[in-house]
UniProtKB/TrEMBL annotation:
It comes from Roseateles puraquae. Keywords: Signal. Pfam families: PEP-CTERM. It comes from the Bacteria. Residues 247-269 form the Ice-binding protein C-terminal domain. This is Ice-binding protein C-terminal domain-containing protein. The keyword Signal applies. Residues 1-28 form the signal peptide. InterPro entries: Ice-binding_C (IPR013424), Xrt_dep_XDP1 (IPR049672).
Amino acid sequence: MMFSQNKKLVMQGLLGAAMALASASSMAASSWGLDGCSTSTGGVNYGNVYTCGSTGGTSANVTVSAFGSNAGVYDVAYLKQNGTSYGFGVASKDEKINVSAPDHSMDNNPGSTVPDLILLKFDTKVALNAITLGWSQSDADITVMAYDGSSAPVITGKTASNLRGTAAQGWTMVANYGDADPAGATGYSSSGTDIRYVNSSNVTASWWLISAYNAGFGGGTLDNLTDYVKLLGVSTKDVTNNNNGRVPEPASLALVGLALVGAASARRKAKKSA
């Protein structure tokens, strides 16, 4: 009797684990407003980092940092909070912390190989859904990439083209977002009016890169206008059983299969003893 009871508990545990694995990749849609982040590490300095709590959905945080040009390669930059309803801009070491408008935004001026970028690190893997720009001028083309490397991404010392480099770098090009026709440029937009829906392939990652557009990242060519944008908010979407387009890992399949086989065996034995 005790053996049967223990076996029942084991089977319940296996089935529970199987169900957990089957739903582990489900994520709640959430949002983060980046104009109200109150926690800053590093103060008014290059390499400062903000921690931002969600404004809707999950309780997960996102940490936000910036990179920009330093003598033609990436280096830590000053993440500039531009006040309520505007969001984050970037001041690179080449631009200096007190850079004036419009270069206090995330921009690709001058049109170098090192456009300003903002790096987002979420507490858990998420599928990015929308990016809200708090302000833009001239044009507002952006690049979005996701990182699935085994350790934190290395950005310092790279350029746009060799940041992505090969697949070994760990970055996945999600897409460039904007208008390839200069006549259709965004022009000036006021706070929060420009929302870009991204990531149609439902890539999931903990690290996300949002940058002023540069052709060096790949992903197709847009116009060559100068882009100035400020990042006001981001949101994620529900993604169920997604593994970046890959099939479930063998270990996960094995555990699910073991649970199902065990359950069938238990049912057969129960029928024989009835």
